[in-house]
Design brief:
The protein is α+β, with helices and mostly antiparallel strands and 296 residues long. The protein has two domains: 186 residues, Beta-Lactamase (2-Layer Sandwich); 100 residues, Orthogonal Bundle (Hypothetical protein af1432). 48% of the residues lie in helices and 16% in strands. The protein contains twelve helices and seven strands. Strands 1, 2, 3, 4, 5, 6 and 7 form a seven-stranded antiparallel beta sheet that branches. β6 and β7 form a beta hairpin. α8 runs antiparallel to α9.
């Protein structure tokens, strides 16, 4: 949680977080850090962050965090997580947020009002999906959901934080101050997220270009290599007690570099790259250089 202080001091702390986030270039690392920062700002116990594709209405959960469940694990262990995609509809809280570009603040997801307006003229279209709570024996209560938009108003994602806690650890609703601070935080993320999004698009184009030279290598392979690289580094950093700030900076660089590891194949001659038989020592040496070329 941010240190107690005046309104201006908290805004300054948020500005410092935003500056740190602006230095992150990899979209995956950025989204993870946005979620962690949002939970820190309002002392939330858990949350998820989604990416949103307006053209297909696909809503993909990218990262989740849960301090209560994480505390049950040994040091260095991580909660099991699988990214999954769903079609955004008004029947889900995150879907309604993305489609309507609106903030949703729910004091208790198990006891929601039947209407979404003060005049009680608009019936609530969405419900809370209890499956995750049932599977983990966790109890979601308060929830704050925000759209993440680009400078042109396009929705890139959804930020959803869960279970605000007071100084004694009791679960409380997200108050107006929490809503203000997260709203301020989310509104400033558009340009940061947009830059990381465009960086990812550029890398994906480079990977596709390399794929034309070597069709056996796929986008899924690139994602696996980058994810494995970061996971291995996380274990190493945890064992070596590397400071968090240094860890975050290296993770970002490592993730981008790992994604580009096969781009250098565009500079490898076809007679070597597509050779059916075993490579000679000289050819193998040339082939090994593709990762260095990709880094350049």
């Amino acid at each position: 949680m941010l240190n107690d202080g005046t309104h201006e001091q908290k805004l300054q702390q948020i500005a410092e977080i935003e500056k740190r986030l602006s230095e992150i270039k990899d979209e995956d690392i950025l989204l993870e850090n946005i979620l962690l920062a949002a939970c820190e700002i309002v002392n939330a116990d858990a949350g998820s962050i989604y990416s949103f594709d307006e053209s297909s209405s696909d809503l993909t959960i990218r990262y989740s965090v849960n301090k209560t469940l994480q505390n049950r694990l040994a040091k260095g262990e991580k909660l099991p997580f699988s990214s999954f995609k769903m079609t955004a509809t008004s029947q889900s809280i995150s879907g309604y947020c993305a489609l309507n570009k609106t903030i949703i603040n729910i004091p208790d997801v198990y006891n929601m009002d039947e209407f979404i307006d003060k005049e009680k003229t608009k019936p609530r279209p969405y419900n809370f999906n209890q499956l995750s709570d049932l599977a983990t024996s966790y109890r979601t209560k308060s929830m704050l959901t925000f759209p993440l938009t680009m400078t042109n108003g396009r929705v890139l994602g959804v930020l959803q934080i869960i279970n605000a806690a007071d100084s004694e650890g009791n679960i409380i609703p997200f108050d107006t101050d929490s809503e203000f601070y997260i709203s301020h935080f989310a509104s400033s993320l558009g340009q940061i997220y947009e830059y990381a999004y465009l960086t990812k698009q550029l890398i994906e184009r480079l990977v596709r270009m390399a794929g034309y030279r070597d069709p056996k290598e796929t986008g899924a392979h690139v994602e696996r290599v980058s994810s494995f690289s970061v996971e291995i580094y996380d274990r190493y950093a945890s064992n070596k007690n590397i400071p968090q700030k240094e860890r975050e900076k290296f993770r970002d660089t490592l993730k981008l570099a790992a994604k580009c590891h096969d781009v250098g194949k565009v500079a490898i001659p076809d007679v070597i790259l597509k050779k059916n038989g075993p490579l000679t020592d000289e050819e193998r040496s040339i082939m090994k250089g593709h990762t260095c070329i990709g880094a350049q």
